[in-house]
Design goal:
mainly alpha
Length: 174
């Protein structure tokens, strides 16, 4: 698929989300926060759609003036792969400490007696019932470290295999 089609699809998606969010308070009873949130998110979505449509005009001009590169698809794949690699690494760096915080908060309530029961992830509950407080608390950070190390170790291996199959990717691999 060419870039202008994908940009049209993204712009249409954001436009539909914006219209839906703006119309939501009309069809459903919401409180003041729900109405403000829906209208705010709808306006943000429509603004994103507007920027996507403006970017589409620039891309259409570029497509008219540029001859296609035979290795453009492979280069785009490599760039997308790098982008998603960084994206998921950032998610992991922020998600695991956040999950740990929520689990520690809930288990501290349970340990101190301020709550008789708490809702945590089932494997964490099993660890708490079987082994106690510290293994349950340290399970999520340990999982985060293992996942991050595996991710940083496996991704270059996948890139090297892809570069061996497609010579156009060799120049893009660090």
């Amino acid at each position: 698929m060419n870039q202008s089609f994908l940009l049209k699809l993204h712009a249409a998606k954001w436009f539909c989300i914006g219209i839906f969010c703006l119309g939501l308070p009309l069809f459903d009873k919401t409180d003041q926060f729900g109405t403000l949130f829906s209208v705010g998110f709808g306006l943000i979505s429509l603004t994103i759609a507007l920027y996507k449509f403006r970017a589409l005009e620039k891309i259409v001009e570029k497509e008219r003036n540029v001859t296609p590169d035979p290795n453009a698809f492979a280069k785009q794949q490599a760039q997308d792969f790098q982008k998603y690699r960084k994206f998921f690494l950032r998610i992991g760096i922020f998600a695991f400490p956040l999950l740990t915080y929520f689990i520690v908060e809930d288990l501290n309530k349970l340990e101190s007696g301020t709550a008789k029961e708490v809702f945590v992830w089932e494997p964490v509950a099993w660890l708490y019932n079987s082994f106690g407080y510290w293994p349950a608390v340290l399970a999520i950070p340990a999982l985060g470290v293992v996942c991050t190390i595996a991710y940083l170790w496996l991704i270059p291996l996948i890139q090297k295999r892809a570069a061996n199959k497609n010579p156009a990717l060799r120049s893009l691999i660090r």
